[in-house]
Write a structure and sequence with these properties.
The chain is of the alpha+beta class. It folds into two domains: 83 residues, no CATH class; 251 residues, DD-peptidase/beta-lactamase superfamily (Beta-lactamase, 3-Layer(aba) Sandwich), CATH 3.40.710.10. Helices cover 32% and strands 13% of the residues. The protein has 13 helices and ten strands. It has a seven-stranded antiparallel β-sheet, with helices on both faces. A three-stranded antiparallel β-sheet has the order 4-6-5. A hairpin with a 3-residue loop joins strand 8 and strand 9. Helix 2 runs antiparallel to helix 13, helix 3 packs parallel to helix 7 and helix 3 packs across helix 8. The two termini are 31 Å apart.
Amino acid sequence: MTKLQIDLEEARHAGLDGEALARLDASIQADIDNGNNFGASIIVARGGVIGHRRSFGTVAPNRQAAENDIYLAMSVSKSFTAALILQAIDHGRFSFDTRVADILPAFATGGKQRVTVRQLLNHTAGVFAGIIPPPSVSPAEYGDLAKTVASICPVPAAYVPGTRCSYTQSLGYSVLGQILVETDPTKRSFAYIARDDLFAPLGMADTRFGLDPDNPRRVAVSYTEKLTSPSSAINQQFLNAAHEGTEFPGWGAYTTVEDTFRFADALRRRGNNGSYRLMSQAMFDYAVQNSTGDMSNGAWDFAREAGGLPDYPANFSLLGGYVRGKGHNLSGAGFTASPGAFCAVGGGSTLWMVDPARDLTFVFLSAGFIEGLEHLQRLCRLSDLALAACVD
């Protein structure tokens, strides 16, 4: 077992309790020791001051986890794409209520004629829910954003848009990415928009959509022996196919724990890192609210029933993630987070979380995929342990 180390002075300076941080570390290490995942990197900060950062375990055979490892962000990528959409709305390029079909006319089929930008952001649009594009897109074309969006335009809505909420793993945010491309004044690709308008200005030097698979710092998607399922090989092959030049706005960003912290902490400051104004405070304050009311997230219905778990509200914000809200509800932000806490969760492996009431930012990136609600339950536990480290 890896020896757990806490810099007590660094923790104290940030307003964090060293013994509580040791318990957070021990919980992460226990998951590794129990074969639930391989490795992880974390940052815990208060008021923008990092009080604890650690890397655990391995991210590849014979390769120890390191702070500069580049992980597939999975659906944390949605928060990057959502931020760009909010910025574009701030700039007047379109609005929350703009109909997608007004920008992408081919989208206006199968009951999707009235789908809005806001409905894509909060998963109430009823669009194609799979992560892999329809068969009209060949494997060689995966990651071609325009072709991916063209392939889902003919697919009918799964329900009347706006009447239900069901998490769309990938392709709803692909549509948002194409909206950014179609309305960009300088006609840049989605990846370049993300680089120029988000990653570079926030100092996220190692974050991008698509990454060379031979990059020595890249962490490949993997499964532990304990948690390998019949579908693991197919999922692993597809998720690791995101190479240089591929554009998956809903899950295909690669990032480091430091870069993810830079992004999340800019949101802790209501969309401004002190040198770059990502979005207006008015926009942030609107977007961080619960945008789905008391709707449930229908994507989890079967998993909840199988696990005997109660229904709980979707609590989607417009920031590409969730707001904690009130009540005893399962959340990546933790049970003990303040109602205004917000987070973004990446399937199986990633999280950033901000609790503004405690001025806390927590980032978790891991190697070793955990499928389904078990990942969300893990994040809830780890966020609660990070919250418990707040001294006041």
